[in-house]
Amino acid sequence: MKIVKMIALIVFLLAANVLFGLTLNRAESRFDAMFTLDLDLLVLALWVFGSMLLVAFAAGIAAALVRPFWATALAFFLSALAVLPFWGLDWIPAAFVLVYFLLALVYANNVRNEMEQRIRFSAAPVQREQKALLSALALLVSVAFALGYQRDAAQKGYVLPPAFKQVMVDAIVPAPGSEAGDLLGQFGPAAEQQMRQEAERIWAGMEEQLRPFAAYLPIALALLVFGILEFLLNLVSWIPLVLLAGIFPLFTALGITRTETETKEVARLVL
User: Fold this and answer.
1) 264 domain-assigned
2) pLDDT digits (tens, 9 = 90+) for 180-217
3) Residue 17 lies in a domain
């Protein structure tokens, strides 16, 4: 029965990582949504943060309850492997999935060591180690955005994403109906067209200046996304911790887990 319970927890962790892999694929294919301020950005953000927090929740349960450690390591290896087919079978995703697995393994080992040193069971070790796991997940999301930008730019020959260009041009040219737009409208359509052409000219000059550094722009985008994710995750990282604090007592109440008392010998150096 214990094996069945462990398999169920591992399957849950696998499912969470499959969803995360789909999210990485979505982030790579819809990377330009991050340069817009519409529903696409909101949907993408829900996918990203929802899948990351679900993985953190499932990983916390697995790290706390799956024993012995080789079974925990196997669970995290299979879950990391599950990300790859749904993200993309390429060497860059494979390399970063390997990094994710190693960081997740360190996370699981640290949680196990802390729990073995405690007198009573607590979810506190998961809380202390969760930030490292979330950072590993944020790293993969950042790489997915950067890969999407790099591949699309190589295919279409641009330097900066067209969606970003459109946002910047719209920010320079006043929108119709606004006070500035109504003022510009008094000068006729030609004035608005001239301003838009000037914005396009400035943008073209900016792209030409950045073109020699085009190879480094995906790295810059990845660092930008990683920084944003790290900041926002600090605001929502409490969610899986609250769920974990509730799920462990629920498992005990349902008979899935039980409290087991162990006697340990302690060696102390005294005078």
Assistant:
1) no
2) 455 555 555 665 667 667 777 777 787 788 888 888 99
3) yes
Cβ neighbours around 21 below 10 Å, total: 25
Q: Does 265 map to a domain?
A: no
Tokens of residue 31, six digits: 């990377």
Q: How many residues does the chain have?
A: 271
Give me the half-sphere count of Cα atoms (radius 13 Å) on the Cβ side of residue 110: 18
Q: How many CB atoms lie within 10 A of CB 187?
A: 11
pLDDT tens for 136-176 read: 999 999 999 999 999 998 898 888 888 777 777 666 665 55
The pair of three-digit structure tokens given for residue 231, joined into one six-digit string: 């900041």
Q: For residue 203, is it within any domain?
A: yes
N-term to C-term CA, the chain = 48
Domain enclosing residue 114, as ranges: 2-254
Contacts of range 175-182, beta carbons closer than 8 Å, 24 or more positions apart = none
How far is the C-alpha of 53 from the C-alpha of 94, rounded, in Å?
Answer: 22
**Of 53, 215, 220, 83, the residue nearest 145 (C-alpha):** 220
3-class SS at 178?
A: coil
Q: How many Cα neighbours within 13 Å face the side chain of 26? A: 18
The pTM of the full predicted model, rounded to 2 decimals, is 0.87
Block residue for tokens 């909101």: 42
Q: Give every CB contact of residue 200 below 8 A, 6+ residues apart in sequence.
A: 169
